[in-house]
Design a protein that fits this description.
Blueprint: H1 2-42, H2 51-58, H3 62-104, H4 107-137, H5 146-152
């Protein structure tokens, strides 16, 4: 009888362990793949091949590779400038929107509105911090230096 109980205890532990393992694998695959799919869908459907792929498939000379690398660098600089300009314009539009809304509000409402905005900003900051911590936990999603990016575009 004693051996019979040991058998059932060990079998139960093994079943629980296997069930946990399978559940973990299933959830990881489904959640990770859905997140990756969403991130891919957000990106533009048209992507440039990397310099390495272009060199292999087009048979680029080293001189052509260097010229294309420089084109990528210049393009990256223009994109950064565009992004900066966009952020400035967006910030100006938000400030204008805020001013227009405040012109309609009473003094008491204005104070509540300011508190509401501060609360929103605080929540957004927490979300962004959580996202950045989430990225740090995934070693496969590392930020690449601009030198590496030039080689892959």
């Amino acid at each position: 009888m004693k051996n019979h109980s040991k058998f059932w205890i060990i079998l139960s532990l093994v079943v629980v362990f296997v069930a946990g393992l399978l559940s973990g694998i299933f959830l990881e695959q489904n959640l990770t793949h859905k997140r990756t799919k969403k991130e891919t869908e957000r990106r533009s459907s048209v992507r440039f091949p990397s310099l390495k792929i272009m060199a292999e498939e087009l048979g680029l000379t080293s001189e052509q590779q260097e010229q294309i690398r420089e084109i990528f660098r210049n393009s990256e600089e223009r994109m950064k400038e565009l992004s900066s300009s966009y952020r400035e314009q967006y910030s100006q539009m938000r400030a204008q929107l805020k001013d227009e809304i405040k012109s309609v509000l009473s003094e008491e409402q204005d104070q509540k509105f300011e508190a509401m905005i501060q609360k929103y900003i605080s929540q957004r900051k927490k979300e962004m911090d959580a996202r950045s911590k989430g990225r740090k936990r995934h070693p496969n999603k590392t930020n690449k230096s601009s030198k590496d990016k030039g080689d892959e575009k």
